[in-house]
Design a protein that fits this description.
The chain has about 475 residues and is mostly helical. The protein has 16 helices and 15 strands. The strands form six sheets. A three-stranded antiparallel β-sheet has the order 3-4-5. The chain is globular.
Length: about 475
């Protein structure tokens, strides 16, 4: 693949920079006016040197400088500077493929591209693309690369840079139909929703239709086909997955087809957005996300391709899935008030919990599935951010949601960011900013998860989705509640 732009730093370089940031640490807490004079040296940028950054955007740099200047807390400003451009600084590979722009976006410390993560990692930059040709090229390449991945295998969640490469080491012996170029083949509904979310947001922000060629159109037809297959109205469909692992959440039940269901019109999922196995295959937040994605796809089909037949098919499936979720996906209190289940099986069995990874119940408004003030969502949100959710953890350092992926006591900063993004209460948002500021373990970056009582015990020092989501939150707060950043 032909490389363009500045010299590309190696994984060793990036890990060295992040390791230096972790080792050096910084003083926590508020600074007095006298101490603020030395803040510039104490909070030196943890970004790679300019010549070693993988991608440069003048629009992102301008946005970064503007927002940072409005943040009174020097540590929060420092963390924003480190995190907001982290995806561009460290994870983007630009090139050409078949004579067209190509963009490959790794997750950070894993040399593979997840359809979900790569979409989420660049979402905060979409509003800036209209006025930055370099960003538009990046999005052209990523939209095309994701379409290529979907055409290779719509059931895969992660892909390798080389379309002929072998999978990730832990996926080498998976019992599934593995294809060249696939990194991992865990079927997750959101893996097909996120590329639509990215494409739709880019199109809405720029009115640019250049990335939406025949290959992209064909990929979207495969999305619709896969969603229909996984309604499992007549049979179990073509997908199955098993893995030999000491962790039960790494494999699936019943020869890899998952636990029994009574088909009800919802789309079956074998794995959650955490890459952990579903207990019940009808995953409610992922189905609600699919409803939004299908309607966005219908709108794009009508406007870009003038293809009413495909748009009608997308809308019909969205309506069917939504009706099924509304009918079967709710749980009720003794007083009759409703809230969402996390997973169901169609037989009447329902699981209530939430996982930090989005789509989650907490993230429904963030993903456009409902309004933040929706009463069913408000009730659900109250329950998932409480001990009624078995994966809600509250300790001396912070409180938040985790999940089976990293186990008990481990709060994911991502959940705190989503909690702030979906809040109607500025006091809640302020508290979330404090938790995020004070749980970085002195690194200046977000992590996958940290111990509820000891932020120095954390996982993944280089997790670009969490870093960029933190930057997105700060930009959002700057636009809606700038007073929270002024002190």
């Amino acid at each position: 693949m032909e490389k363009t732009g500045p010299a590309m730093p190696s994984r060793r370089d990036v890990l060295k920079w992040l390791g230096a940031a972790t080792a050096s640490g910084v003083a926590l807490g508020s600074l007095s006016a006298r101490a603020a004079a030395s803040a510039s040296s104490r909070y030196a940028s943890r970004r790679p040197p300019v010549g070693k950054r993988k991608f440069a955007s003048s629009a992102v740099e301008h946005q970064l400088a503007m927002v940072k200047s409005a943040i009174a807390d020097p540590k929060l400003a420092w963390m924003f500077e480190n995190c907001y451009p982290n995806t561009l600084d460290t994870t983007v590979e630009l090139g050409t493929l078949d004579g067209k722009p190509d963009t490959f976006v790794i997750t950070g410390d894993i040399d593979a591209m997840w359809l979900r993560d790569s979409s989420a990692q660049v979402m905060p930059y979409i509003p800036l693309a209209m006025h930055d040709a370099a960003l538009r090229r990046l999005f052209h390449g990523l939209i095309r690369r994701q379409a290529r991945c979907i055409r290779i295998d719509p059931y895969a969640n992660a892909f390798m840079p080389d379309p002929a490469a072998r999978p990730l080491s832990w996926a080498l012996h998976d019992a599934t139909e593995m294809k060249p170029g696939v990194g991992e083949r865990k079927w997750e509904i959101d893996s097909l929703c996120y590329p639509i979310r990215l494409a739709y947001a880019y199109w809405q922000a720029t009115a640019d239709t250049a990335p939406f060629d025949d290959d992209w159109r064909d990929a979207m037809a495969r999305v619709l086909q896969t969603f229909r297959e996984q309604q499992r109205k007549r049979d179990r469909g073509p997908y199955h997955f098993q893995r030999t692992s000491p962790a039960p959440s790494e494999s699936q039940y019943l020869q890899g087809y998952g636990n029994p269901t009574r088909p009800n019109g919802m789309i079956h999922a074998m794995f959650r957005p955490s890459d952990d196995a579903c207990l019940y295959p009808l995953l409610v937040p992922a189905n609600l996300f699919a409803v939004v994605s299908l309607r966005q796809l219908a709108q794009m089909s009508r406007s870009i391709y003038r293809d009413d037949a495909f748009a009608i098919a997308c809308t019909a499936l969205a309506d069917e899935v939504e009706q099924a979720v509304q009918r079967d996906g709710r749980m009720h209190e003794a007083d009759g008030s409703a809230y969402w289940a996390y997973e169901i099986d169609g037989f009447g069995n329902q699981l209530f919990m939430d996982d930090a990874n989005a789509p989650s119940l907490l993230s429904l408004p963030y993903l456009g599935c409902c309004d933040r003030a929706d009463p069913v969502y408000r009730h659900t949100r109250e329950r998932v951010w409480s001990e009624r959710n078995p994966y809600f953890f509250k300790g001396a350092a912070a409180e938040g949601i985790g999940g089976p992926h990293e186990g008990l006591r481990m709060v994911w900063p991502m959940s705190i960011m989503i909690y702030a993004q979906t809040s109607l209460d500025t006091a809640e948002i302020r508290q979330c900013l404090r938790w995020l500021r004070d749980t970085d373990a002195g690194t200046g970056f977000m992590h996958e998860a940290f111990d509820q009582d000891d932020p120095a015990h954390f996982t993944r020092s280089w997790f670009a989705w969490a870093n960029t989501l933190f930057g997105e939150l700060i930009v959002d707060v700057h636009g809606k509640h700038p007073e929270l950043l002024r002190g």
